[in-house]
Amino acid sequence: MHAKFTPLTPAVYDYLVAHCSGRDPVLDDLAAATRALGDVSVMQVAPEQGAFLTMLVRLTGARAILEVGTFTGYSALCLARGLPADGRLLCCDVNAEWTAIGRRHWEKAGVADRIDLRLGPALDTLRALPATASFDIAFIDADKTNYAAYYEEILPRLRPNGVILFDNVLWSGQVANPQADDPSTLALRALNDALARDDRVEVVMLPVADGLTLARRKG
User: Fold this and answer.
1) Rg for the chain (alpha carbons), in Å?
2) Which residues of 1-13 are buried (b: 16+ CB within 10 A; e: fewer)?
3) How many Å apart are CA 163 and CA 212, to the nearest integer?
4) Is the model's pLDDT at 1 over the cut of 70?
5) Is the per-residue pLDDT at 22 higher than 90?
6) 3-state SS of 119-147?
7) Most exposed: 4, 49, 171, 217, by fewest CB within 10 Å?
């Protein structure tokens, strides 16, 4: 099949970001606070990815969302922005310092009352949840070696036709590099292969930011 895609040069990428809907000043402030952390700020989702998350929540009418890996709260703010006033977002993370940055900006954005942040190992948090299907959307953006374990805990708790999103599934292209054999690359490669064969879900991988997979739970 002929490859049909547009390479994202810096100029094309800037054009893409500039043509999303109006920027949110609270998100801009949060992005600046995250950049001040230094190299670790690379863990923040890209602005167009955040806009996609907000739109997906609104398009699906989601009311209950789960996030694994919150960092400084940019993606959580994008997800919460799409929820109705009585919607709820459960965030799982282990870092109180980084998530405190998120809390401040959630308050500033007026969505803090929609977000339940639980600090501790995400697998412990997930396993403590009721084993009933109750979430509309889940977003996984945490330690790559546990992606498969998070998936298996979340899928039974996802409503039929609900969506799990996995971030970083291209891993800067390393998943397609046969020479790359670090634990994160191996884990992501195995997950990508398993999802493509999993008949419980319908899957599409998109070249958004560092790769974003959507897995819809079949009814």
Assistant:
1) 17
2) eeeeeeeeeeeee
3) 12
4) no
5) no
6) ECCHHHHHHCCCCCCCEEEEEECCCHHHH
7) 4
Write out pLDDT tens, residues 122-175. Answer: 999 999 999 988 999 999 999 999 999 999 999 999 999 999 999 999 999 999
How many CA atoms lie less than 13 Å away from 37 in the CB half-sphere?
17
Number of H helices, E strands in the chain: 8, 7
pLDDT digit string, tens, across residues 31-75: 999 999 999 999 999 999 999 999 999 999 999 999 999 999 999
**Nearest in space to 77 (alpha carbons), one of 69, 89, 95:** 89
214's enclosing H/E stretch is strand 212-217
* Strands across the sheet containing 135-140: 115-119, 88-93, 64-68, 135-140, 158-167, 212-217, 201-206
> Strand, coil or helix: what is 150?
helix
Total residue count of the chain as it appears in this document: 219
User: Cα(102)–Cα(192) distance, rounded to whole angstroms?
Assistant: 30
Q: 179-206 burial, b if ≥16 CB within 10 A, otherwise e?
A: ebeeebbebbbebbeebeeeeebebebe
pTM value is 0.95
